[in-house]
Design goal:
about 120 residues; mainly alpha; Serine Threonine Protein Phosphatase 5, Tetratricopeptide repeat; about 70% helix
């Protein structure tokens, strides 16, 4: 509720408490990471990585990690997370977001072509 009301600090506190109570929930770690992301906290990477460690098939964690890498201007790494998310996204829920993020990577990156080829080796 606090998240939707724009109280990102309050939401981060609540989700931090939630992961302390239930530290084995990848969903809670992703939600906590989302709150940290909106705060601009560097701890967001840890939260998303924790979600991925708890669930190695977690598409959302990979998608979220791509944003962290985009913000850090680590375009090749962001594309890697996007490619993995797309490969695991059986429902297609993240397809549009991944497509948009991959375009941002390729446009912002100084080595655009090489980054895209590294992340998507089947490209011509």
């Amino acid at each position: 509720m606090t998240f939707k009301l724009g109280d990102h600090d309050g939401a981060a506190r609540l989700t931090r408490e939630a992961v302390e109570i239930n530290p084995i929930s990848p969903d809670l770690w992703n939600i906590h990471g989302d709150c940290l992301y909106l705060q601009g906290s560097r701890k967001r990477h840890y939260a998303f990585s924790r979600a991925l460690k708890l669930n190695p098939e977690d598409v959302r964690a990979r998608y979220n990690l791509s944003f962290v890498c985009l913000d850090r201007r680590q375009f090749g790494e962001a594309l890697k997370w996007i490619a993995e998310a797309l490969a695991l996204d059986r429902t297609g829920d993240y397809r549009d977001g991944c497509s948009t993020s991959s375009r941002k990577c390729c446009v912002r990156s100084p080595g655009r072509t090489s980054n895209a080829r590294a992340a998507f080796p089947t490209l011509p």
